[in-house]
Design brief:
By secondary structure, the protein is of the alpha/beta class.
Length: 142
Amino acid sequence: MINIDKVKKELIQDAMRTFPDECCGFLFGNEKGEEKEIIEILVVDNAKEGDKRRRFEITAKDYIKAERYAEDKDLALLGIYHSHPNHPSVPSEHDRISAQPFFSYLIISLTEEKINSIQSWLLNEDFQFEEEKILEHKPITH
C-alpha cells in the first residue's frame, strides 16, 4: 500500500503543467512493512529525445541527484512517477522493461481537462507489474 496524500496536489500540478508531454520525477518518504508514505517528490525534466508525449527518460545525473536528495533529507527513495497523457494509468511494455524491483511506479492518466486516474505498480518476482493499492483520503482535484 502507498499513501500519496501529502504529494497528490504536486503530482497533479506537474502532470497538468507538462501536458501533452509526459512528466516524470522521484518519490521520497518512509516505508513501514508493506506500507509506504510518500512525503516529497522531486520533479525532473523529461530527458527523452523526440516525442515526449509517449515516453519519458530520466538521466543518470538525475538518479544521482535523487539518491543524494534522499540521503540529505533522511528519506527513502521509494520510486518514480510519470504521466500518461491521453492514455490509461497502466504501465506500458517500455515502462516494464526499464523498471527496477522494489520501486513504486506511480502513473497519472490525464487529458487536457482532467485527471482520469492515478495508479501505482510494483514489479513482482517474474518481472511483471502488479498494482499497488493507493490509500485514498482526499479526492483528486487540481
